[in-house]
Each structure stands twice: as structure tokens, then as C-alpha cells.
Amino acid sequence: MGSLEKLKEEYDNIVIPKELDMRIQQEIQKSRKRQTKKAGGSHSFKRMIHAMEAAAATVCVFFTLALNTSQVFAAEAAQLPVIGGLARVLTFRSYETEKDDIAVFVEIPTIEMIAEDTGLKVDEINQEILDCCNQYADEAMQRAEEYRTAFLETGGTLEEWANHKIKITVGYEIKQQNNDYLSFVVRGTENWTNAYNESRFYNLSLGTGEMVTLKDMLGSDYIELVNESIREQIAERRQEGEVFFTPEEGGFTGISKETKFYINEKNRPVIIFEKYEIAPGSSGEIEFEITGGV
């Protein structure tokens, strides 16, 4: 079967999620009511509505086609949102699979706009998240396959390989979701190595429609403010028994513009240091909530 025939077969077998169809029809009905008042039920308006319905159906098909023909692995349909709030993060696509005793668990988030007047433009962000998640899963699978080949070529058995329980995970965690901010982290992890684990933090203002920076939250002198706060917190936590690397050992020396953070339930920034970055690996990720600022 040629590639075009295969694509047509996949297209013909697409099942459009009922929730998506419902959302599209709801929007069409809303538009119909608004425009009826203006157009008085004219023939041109009716033609426009038919065109909108056809366009919506096309969008729906291509949306579902994208879900079901991804190059990563077989996917299940997206989980679609319920109306409520200004905007929120939800699961766009999730799946799990296993190949050669390599388990893969993927949950890809998307930002869903509810209100129309937030100023938040999310299409590029959602595409970036989708691309990054798919790329991480692909590359992690390739690394695992290379590891498996090397393991077997150096005398390891298939049974011993299976006992390694290799797992690739791509997922997300919502940190804050209210009428002021959306804050969440997207993570990719491989349980046999920390070298390729990756975390991306997204902090968005629903007031400005922009990504939030530490400068936005803490003022122009945010670097000095954060550095002082972290040094004080490290000193306090050391007295309570926590272990941190010294600056000479590669420990904390100060933040930069690229320092990772999220926004917590108090609408405060929380600085994140990855495992092994400023403390032994047994400490995991290290967090520091920062107060003060503008």
C-alpha cells in the first residue's frame, strides 16, 4: 500500500471526538445568534454560516488527524475542556506504549482559552509544547534503544534487560491556575539516567497576555533581592540539617535571567534548582519561595 493510500485509510478511520464536535457547534450557534441580530437573517449571512460550518468541520478533521497520525506512537483522543474560568491547562493528548521492554508514558498539556479578552495568545506556545514533548519522547526512545543494543552486545541477556524496567515519562504539573496567572511545568524524564531529564516552566499573565519574568514580579533589582533571599534561606536550612554544596563545590553563587521559577498558590515566584545543581542528588529539586518586590 502506497503512502497516499495509507494516509487515506487513516483519514477514513478517524473518529471525531464528540466533545470537540459539541464545542464547534456551540461556537457556531453563538455566532449565529450574534450575527442574526446584525444581518436580519439575510441570504449572505446564511451562506457565511454554511461556510463556517464547513470550515469548522475541516478544522475538526485535521485536528483529529493530527492526533491520530503523530510520528511518535499511537495516540488516544484529546481530553477536551469544560467551560469555566478565563483560561486553563489541560491534557491535549496522552498515551502509553511499550517496545523492547521500554515503557513510554506521555501526557501533553495545552492552554485552553475560555474568555476572549485576556490578551493571551497561546497558539505558538501550544505548538512549542507539542513539538518539544514529541521530540523528547522520540529522542529518549532512541537513547533507550541504543542503550539496549549496547547492553546486549556486551553480554547482557534479554531477561536482565527486562529487569531494568526502563521507563520514559513526559508529563506536566500545574502550579498555579487562577484569573491572574497560569503557571505550569512540562517534564521529560528517563529513569535510568539524569543526564537528559528536562523541565520547562511556563508562567503567563492573564492580565497582559505575556510571559511573566522575575523582573515583572519583583522589580528591577530582582537579582539582588533573590540572591539575598536564597542565601538567607540556605543558611536557615543548613541549621536544620539540610546539606548544600558550597560555592567552591559548585553550589549556589547567584541567579541569572535564565533561572527557572514557577508561581505558587500565593502568587509568589518560587525559584527551582534541579537535582544535583546546588545540593546532593538525594535532595531532589530544591525550591525557594521569594517574597517582597513590586
Short description:
The chain is an alpha+beta fold. The chain is built from seven helices and eight strands. Helix 2 runs antiparallel to helix 3.
Structural class: alpha+beta
Strand order of the largest sheet: 1-2-3-4-5
Which blocks of ≥5 consecutive residues have pLDDT under 50? 14-28, 41-84
Query: Which whole number gives the mean pLDDT?
Result: 78
Terminal residue distance:
63 Å
How many beta strands in the DSSP annotation?
A: 8
Report strand %: 15-25%
Portion of residues in helices?
40-55%
Largest sheet: 5 strands, mixed
Q: Helix count, per DSSP?
A: 7
Order of helices and strands: HHHEEHHEEEHHEEE
Shape: flat
Description:
With 294 residues, the protein is of the alpha+beta class. Strands 1-2-3-4-5 form a five-stranded mixed beta sheet. The protein has a three-stranded antiparallel beta sheet with strand order 6-7-8, covered by helices on one side. Strand 4 and strand 5 form a beta hairpin. About 20% of the residues have low confidence.
